[in-house]
Amino acid sequence: MTTPALVDESTLPDERWDDPARGTIRFRTLISAPGTDTSAIVCGVAMMAEGDSFMLHSHPDPEVYYGLEGEGEVLIDGVPHRLAPGVALYIPGGAVHGVPMAAAALKWFYTFAADRFSDIHYHFPHET
Question: What does pTM read for this prediction?
Fold first, then answer.
């Protein structure tokens, strides 16, 4: 059985990919087992400074981005989509997406229907 969870983003450390070829994006995982006693949802906040990258990738799970700060373009299957405060993007499972280069600082909320972040199987083309 899961319980309600309260997480203060400001108390969490920035996370990064182990492989810098995946990008220089930073993120903070807010809700994800086993860090929280939750199931069926993973969410967090992604942050990019001007010049940062989040290389094109895919995963079987659909994802939602919701813009919090700044403005930028997210490529989804080769098509640019504007991300800005108040804008939500639905990214279908299997779609190739990312932010190859942030033109300005950008921050967004992301969520998946999964129990834990480690359940999301990322595929980066350079890793094949």
Answer: 0.95
